[in-house]
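re: that chain from earlier
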Amino acid sequence: MIGPDGTQYGVITLDEAMNRARDAELDLVEVAPNERPPVCRIMDFGKFKYEKNKKSGQKTHQTKTKEIRLRPKTGEHDVDTKVRQAIGFLKHKDKVQVTVMFKGRELAHVEEGQRVMQQILADLAEHSKLEQPPSQQGKKIIAMVAPK
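^ sequence. v structure.
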């Protein structure tokens, strides 16, 4: 048996262990049931469960959706910068929505926006998988990529 402060009491009877736990106003918890003899510890079990849940909750990552916005006339270097940004989001396990927006008369040249979209998707191909293919929705072309 192990006490609340970590001291080892050795092999004692179950009644004696229960009495020591009641005296300390704590719980007697079996921590190694498969050992011979089984190992028990005096601890606050509610606090132990709370700490365990708190630790397990820290490791999970909530997937967020990040957006990269471009225009059909966006320069080559600016597109490369946006691609690097998107790769960073994907490495952080976030989804990325790639949006090419049109203003005014740019809608007359939709193929220019599709060219930009295809270039970005080609650059992101090794870091992501295509979740939603490019589709035109009004004045935007939207595609969604997720991390591999």
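The domain at 14-58 is CATH 3.10.20.80 (Ubiquitin-like (UB roll)).
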